[in-house]
Amino acid sequence: MISGGWVGVRQRVGAAGAGPSGSKVFGALGHRWIVEDPRTHGELAELEAQTGVRLPEEYRAFLLHVGAGGAGPAYGLFPVRRVQGRWRWEGDGADLADLSRLAEPSPDQGPDPKLLDELRAQRPEEEDFDDIEDFDDAIEAWDERWEVIMFAPERTAGAIVISHLGCAQREWLIISGSHRGTIWSDCRVDDVDLAPLLDDDGTPVTFARWYTDWLEKAERTALSAP
């Protein structure tokens, strides 16, 4: 889906928001069914010059023909805005992305699974401690070791955060590398590694599929009788 595939999407979002059950769609109270104005070709040129990379085509076409962000999956699609002369994405956790590294290929693989399994096995358990303060110290030390591996800056090079699911769970759009244009789930807060969203047949979910799947499901709820 490039530009033609986005025809009518903005209007469909508006109609869903005005539907009798629009408020029942998960996240609607957050994005309020508002879609920000689209970006211009000139604005995207500025953004891409700043970041040193061309955005994936599906997402780029969305910004041009639908909107800069707003109503979308979960609590909404993080909008891209120019603030004090610099472009950035705004939303809960958007600052986790290093915009100076968007041109770097996103890693093909995460940490060694064996290393993660070993570290999980070493996680302190409260019942193993007589003193709660000793447990607190132990779990804090373990968390630091875990975060050094799981939240290393290079893990999310070449990607932006585009949505917040609540409880510190987020989704990323890969901008550069072999996974360019696909959406990844980030549940590291629950000790689960970054992982691509997959269709039922195991195909990686691209931005267009991610957004239109949400819209179709949202329409079924929003346009139904209350």
From TrEMBL:
Residue span(s) of domain Knr4/Smi1-like: 38-217
InterPro entries cross-referenced by the UniProt entry: Knr4/Smi1-like_dom (IPR018958), Knr4/Smi1-like_sf (IPR037883)
Membrane-spanning ranges: none
Protein name: SMI1/KNR4 family protein
Species, as recorded: Streptomyces griseoluteus
